[in-house]
Structure to design on (597 residues):
C-alpha cells in the first residue's frame, strides 16, 4: 500500500519541487538585476562613494599622523600598523549609512511601490541590496589596502590568514547591510537617515578597541567596548594580518575570532527578520 | 465575470483608526477608461493600492483582470501596471536604464528589455533624453517615463493614480494621448483624478467616491442628469422688469424661475432646450421686456461632484 501511495505522490512532489526551484531561480535572477541597479548607482553617482571613502582616509591621516605621534601601542610597533585594521572595520560600519539612505530613498520616492506592483520576487530588493553592498565593500577594501600600504601598513602573515581577514570584514558588512536596511525602512524619510545612523555608528566605533584599549576605559564602558561586535572583528583581523594588538585577558578578547563570526550571524538573525517584517508591513 | 476590476464590500481601517474604505463596491467593465472621482481623503488612493495588491484589506473581495486579489496576488501583479501620484522611477538611472530595469524585473530577456525600452522611448518622445538621469527630467518627462514603464508589457489593467496632478497643460495633453493609445490597444484604465474635466474627457464611466464608498456611478451624461435637466438663463436689461419677466417665464415653462436680482438674472430648468429658448425670448420681446443675454446651461461634473460629495458631509 505504502509503496503505491509513494508512487502516486511522486509526480506531484516533483512538480512541487520544480515549482520551488523555479521560484528560487526567479528570486535569484530578480535579486541579481537589483544588484546591478545599485551598482549602476555607484557608477552614475560616484560622488556618494567618494564621500564614504573620504571619512576612513581622513581617519588614517588624522589618527595615524596627528594623534598617532603621541600614542604608544601596548605591544610595541607603530600606531599606524595598529590603527589600520580598525579603520577597515569602521569603514564597514559607516556603510550602514549608504545602505539605509539607499533603501529609504527607494521607499520615499515611490519606486518601491512600482517594484511591489510587479511580478518580481519580493525578496529581490533586499537580497539585491545586500549583494551590491558586498561589491561596494570589496571596492572600499581595495582602496583602503592601497591607502594603508602607502602609509606604511602591511600584513605579515600568509595569504590564507589575509583572505580570512577580508572574509570577516565582508561578513560584518553583510550583517550591517541588514541593520542598514532595517533603519532605512524605519526612517520616516531619506533626509532623517543620517540623524538615526550617526548617533548609532559613532559610539559603536568610539566605544570599541579601534583607537583605545578597553582596559583604559571606566569599568562598565570597558566591558561594553570589549564585547562590542566592532571590537571582535577588529581584534580578529589584527591577529590575522599580524598587526600589533592590544592583548588583554577578557574572554571576549581571547575568543575574538569566534565572536567575529558569531556576532554578524546574530545580527543577521535579529535584523534580517526585522527588516523583512518591516518591508512586508508596507502593505498594511 | 466581464468586469476588468470588481470589488465587493472592501473595508480597510488603518492602524490609527481611520476608516479609509467602508464597503467599497466597484465594477469597471473591460476596455476603456473608468474614472474614480472624489475629494481628498475619500479613499481613492487606498482603493487603488488595495486593488493593485500593495495594501491588504480587512474585508470584502476583489478581482482584477480575472484573478482574485487576495488569493492570487502574483497573478494580478503579472497582469497590471501602476502609475502613482509621484513618478516612481529610479532618479539616478537614465531613462533608458529605468525601462530596461523594469523590463528585466518583468522577466524579459536582456535583449528584449533593451529593444522594448528603445521602442517606448521613441513612442513617448524621450529618445533624445534617454541617456540623462531621470532626476534631470522635467515633471512631464518623468511622468511620461513612468507611463512608459507601465507599458513595457501591455497590462490588462492599468491603474493611474492622479497622473496629471501638477503638470502643465501641454504635458497633460501628452499624458492623455498616451492613455488613449493604451486604451486603443485593449488595456482597461482605472483613473483617479481630481480634475473633473479630465474624467469628462477620458472616462467612459465614472464612480464618485466619498467617505470610503462609491456614492454614484454611471456615464458622465448619466451623472449630470442626476442633478437635473439643462437650465435656461436669461438676463434682462432693466432690473425693474425682472418680476414681470419672471411671471412670463413661469407662464411659459410651468416652473417658477430662480431670481437673482443683483445680476438681473432668471434661471429655470427646461426639457425642450432650443424650443424653450426661442419661445421664451420671443414672449419677453412681445411683452416689451428687453433681454440682455440668454443661454442654455448644461450641468457640469463639478456641480455633480459638489452635489454628491457635499450632501454626504
Amino acid at each position: 500500500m505504502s509503496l503505491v501511495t509513494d508512487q502516486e505522490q511522486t509526480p506531484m512532489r516533483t512538480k512541487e519541487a520544480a515549482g520551488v526551484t523555479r521560484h528560487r531561480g526567479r528570486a535569484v535572477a530578480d535579486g541579481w538585476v537589483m544588484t546591478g541597479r545599485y551598482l549602476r548607482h555607484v557608477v552614475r553617482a560616484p560622488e556618494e562613494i567618494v564621500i564614504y571613502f573620504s571619512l576612513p582616509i581622513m581617519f588614517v591621516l588624522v589618527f595615524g599622523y596627528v594623534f598617532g605621534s603621541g600614542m604608544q601601542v601596548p605591544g610595541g610597533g607603530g600606531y599606524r600598523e595598529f590603527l589600520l585594521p580598525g579603520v577597515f572595520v569602521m569603514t564597514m560600519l559607516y556603510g550602514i549609512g549608504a545602505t539605509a539612505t539607499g533603501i529609504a530613498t527607494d521607499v520615499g520616492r515611490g519606486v518601491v511601490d512600482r517594484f511591489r506592483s510587479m511580478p518580481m520576487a519580493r525578496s529581490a530588493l533586499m537580497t539585491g541590496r545586500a549583494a551590491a553592498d558586498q561589491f561596494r565593500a570589496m571596492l572600499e577594501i581595495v582602496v583602503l589596502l592601497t591607502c594603508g600600504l602607502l602609509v606604511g601598513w602591511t600584513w605579515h602573515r600568509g595569504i590564507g590568514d589575509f583572505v580570512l581577514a577580508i572574509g570577516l570584514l565582508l561578513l560584518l558588512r553583510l550583517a550591517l547591510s541588514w541593520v542598514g536596511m532595517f533603519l532605512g525602512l524605519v526612517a520616516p524619510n531619506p533626509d532623517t537617515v543620517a540623524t538615526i545612523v550617526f548617533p548609532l555608528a559613532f559610539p559603536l566605533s568610539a566605544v570599541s578597541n579601534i583607537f583605545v584599549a578597553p582596559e583604559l576605559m571606566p569599568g562598565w564602558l570597558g566591558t561594553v567596548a570589549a564585547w562590542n561586535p566592532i571590537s571582535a572583528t577588529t581584534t580578529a583581523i589584527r591577529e590575522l594580518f599580524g598587526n600589533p594588538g592590544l592583548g588583554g585577558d577578557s574572554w571576549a578578547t581571547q575568543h575574538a575570532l569566534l565572536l567575529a563570526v558569531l556576532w554578524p550571524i546574530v545580527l543577521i538573525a535579529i535584523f534580517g527578520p526585522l527588516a523583512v517584517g518591516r518591508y512586508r508591513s508596507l502593505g498594511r | 465575470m466581464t468586469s476588468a476590476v470588481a470589488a465587493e464590500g472592501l473595508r480597510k481601517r488603518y492602524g490609527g483608526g481611520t476608516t479609509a474604505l467602508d464597503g467599497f463596491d466597484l465594477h469597471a467593465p473591460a476596455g476603456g477608461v473608468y474614472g474614480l472621482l472624489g475629494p481628498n481623503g475619500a479613499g481613492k488612493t487606498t482603493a487603488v493600492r488595495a486593488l493593485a495588491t500593495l495594501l491588504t484589506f480587512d474585508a470584502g473581495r476583489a478581482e482584477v483582470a480575472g484573478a482574485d486579489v487576495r488569493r492570487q496576488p502574483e497573478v494580478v501583479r503579472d497582469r497590471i501596471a501602476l502609475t502613482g501620484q509621484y513618478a516612481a522611477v529610479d532618479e539616478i538611472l537614465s531613462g533608458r536604464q529605468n525601462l530596461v530595469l523594469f523590463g528585466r524585473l518583468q522577466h524579459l530577456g536582456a535583449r528584449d528589455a533593451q529593444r522594448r525600452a528603445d521602442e517606448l522611448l521613441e513612442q513617448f518622445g524621450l529618445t533624445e533624453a534617454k541617456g540623462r538621469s531621470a532626476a534631470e527630467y522635467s515633471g512631464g518627462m518623468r511622468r511620461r517615463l513612468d507611463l512608459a514603464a507601465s507599458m513595457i508589457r501591455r497590462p490588462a489593467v492599468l491603474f493611474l493614480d492622479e497622473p496629471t496632478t501638477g503638470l502643465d497643460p501641454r504635458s497633460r495633453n501628452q499624458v492623455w494621448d498616451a492613455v488613449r493609445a493604451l486604451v486603443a490597444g485593449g488595456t482597461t484604465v482605472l483613473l483617479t483624478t481630481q480634475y473633473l474635466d479630465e474624467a469628462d474627457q477620458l472616462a467612459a464611466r465614472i464612480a464618485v467616491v466619498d467617505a470610503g464608498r462609491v456614492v454614484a456611478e454611471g456615464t458622465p451624461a448619466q451623472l449630470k442628469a442626476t442633478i437635473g435637466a439643462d437650465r435656461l438663463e436669461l438676463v434682462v436689461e432693466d432690473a425693474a422688469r425682472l418680476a414681470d419677466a419672471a411671471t412670463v417665464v413661469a407662464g411659459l415653462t410651468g416652473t417658477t424661475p430662480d431670481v437673482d436680482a443683483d445680476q438681473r438674472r432668471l434661471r429655470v430648468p427646461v426639457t425642450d432646450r432650443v424650443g424653450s429658448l426661442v419661445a421664451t425670448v420671443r414672449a419677453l420681446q412681445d411683452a416689451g421686456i428687453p433681454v440682455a443675454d440668454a443661454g442654455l446651461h448644461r450641468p457640469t461634473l463639478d456641480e455633480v461632484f459638489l452635489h454628491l460629495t457635499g450632501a454626504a458631509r
Remarks:
- Residues 220 and 250 of chain A are 13 Å apart (CA to CA).
- The interface with chain B takes residues 26, 29-30, 33-34, 36-37, 40-41, 44-45, 105, 109-111, 113-120, 124, 282-284 of chain A (CB under 8 Å).
